[in-house]
Amino acid sequence: MTVVGGCPDLCARDAGLRVRRRALSAAAYVRLRTDGHRQDVDTLPHAGCPSKGAVMTEDNPVLSGADFASGVPLTSVKDRTLQLGHANGEAVILVRQGDVVHAVGATCTHYGAPLADGLLVGDTVRCPWHHACFSLLNGEALRAPALSPIACWKVEQRDGIVYVREKLEHPRSDIRATPESIVIVGGGGAGNAAAEMLRQLGYSGTITMLSTDSSPPYDRPNLSKGGLAGTGAAEVTPPRSAQYYRDQRIDLRLNVRVTRIDVAARQIELEDGSRQGYDALLLATGAEPVRLDLPGVGLPHVHYLRTAADCDALVAAAQKAKRAVVIGASFIGLEVTAALRARKLDVQVVGREAVPMEKILGPQVGRFIQSLHEKHGVRFHLGSTPALIDADAVTLSNGERLAADLVVVGVGVRPNVALAQQAGLAINDAGGGVCVDEYLETSTPGIYVAGDIAAWPDPLSSERIRVEHWVVAQRQGQTAARNMLGARERFTAVPFFWTEQYDFGLAYVGHAERFDTVDIEGSLDGHDCKITYLRDDRKLAVAVVHRDLEGLRSEVEFERMIDANEGTPVACHEVDMALCQPRERTL
Hints:
Helix 2 (189-200) packs across helix 10 (470-484). The chain is globular and about 80 Å long. 50% of the residues are buried. The N and C termini lie far apart (56 Å). A seven-stranded mixed β-sheet has the order 2-4-5-6-11-12-3, with no helix packed on it. The protein has a five-stranded antiparallel β-sheet with strand order 1-7-8-9-10, covered by helices on one side. By secondary structure, it is of the alpha/beta class.
């Protein structure tokens, strides 16, 4: 990969991006798509850096650079760069590819990131923050976590001058309604992304989305971050209105539970006994928090965090509380801890592990994150488990008593596979979840799975994996949507997630369930590093701390590794199918 032009200090610019991201805690956001076709990559910074304090949103863009509407010389537009400017009061990026020049919106529709600081990949631009992907040809959002397109403008060249003219309409496809009806069970990231992708592709048939949640689809990752901390409350509201679903002819039903699938009749049965037929079915039932089984867990000051309603209840409790105990030193537990400290609560963390998140990030990173929390006044009780919760304390198994008027439990989740088991679908005994092939189709033709319950053959690790990450769920929903319409597209997206705790942000690409080497390049203490996870000298995952472009480059590197093996059977898919046993169907 070559890097040409742009800012002289990429690391400093990445740090500046993170500063701007934090200022955007209440920014606009949206949804996603997945391309399926990979192209050559140019890792090019944009021509000209906006100020590090700049914040860009759809409603309040920071306008800098040239006025493209007035025209700029073609010779001033460097080939294969992201050049920031503006036209008619809107921030625009120009991209020249030979003699062709594209003009698209400069703001990611997910969290409002500046796309001029992103990565140019073939005919697409990728967001530096959470790796959304947009087409330079028409502005379409191709990959999660952005679901809405960016604007696209007509570009005119005359006498060596490039002019940005009027906005272009986003193209509309029209796909014959085959299958005639699609039912989606689950209203989370995967289910909603699938429904939106079906309509984006021009599918005209019936879409029914059945959700056990009381709220329309919302931005779940923010619940344990800005939503709970009180710094990004606007992001917790549903990103799509009820009217949006009506306009898109998506029959969204809330507070609805599916109790069984009649595979032979191609029908699902609801809790009230009613039935609905389907031609294609997507199961995106997600996961549920692991519930503790000990005295006092049912007390009113004990909370779990999974849904928007959970977040609302926890915020209300935190406003009255002074001392909190968080049970669980996982990502969710530590993000909750940081959010509660932002609300000035005294917080103690209880975890059975010796080092927080050691299994995922390694001991050195885990110890650093522990010290980060300790610098913010958090006290840890590691190698410990709770034995009893009462009205004003948590008693540990060693007899120690921790004062608390608020308790939050975050000890992991379990995939909701009961419906799949009832239908007789193959279940992955090794790691849980529902077994699917590379197209996300289950052992029963016509039934697809996406999200937290999907156990799929990962072409990067050559293992069957199940990942509980929001962006993965959304991308799987998009791939499943295309495949329900007959695309036969392999799911090969590289897993991605991010965490934010205080002023520390970490993004992770790949999947390293087991690793024997952790290589840290840079400084953890300085919040500026790249962390590589290997097993038997094979790179499996990369985490970056305030190095957004490094994260994007690593994602592309993994994609190239996958493409190099394109057409080669994934060993895990051939070997471990014996671990995926179909369950006896309950009729």
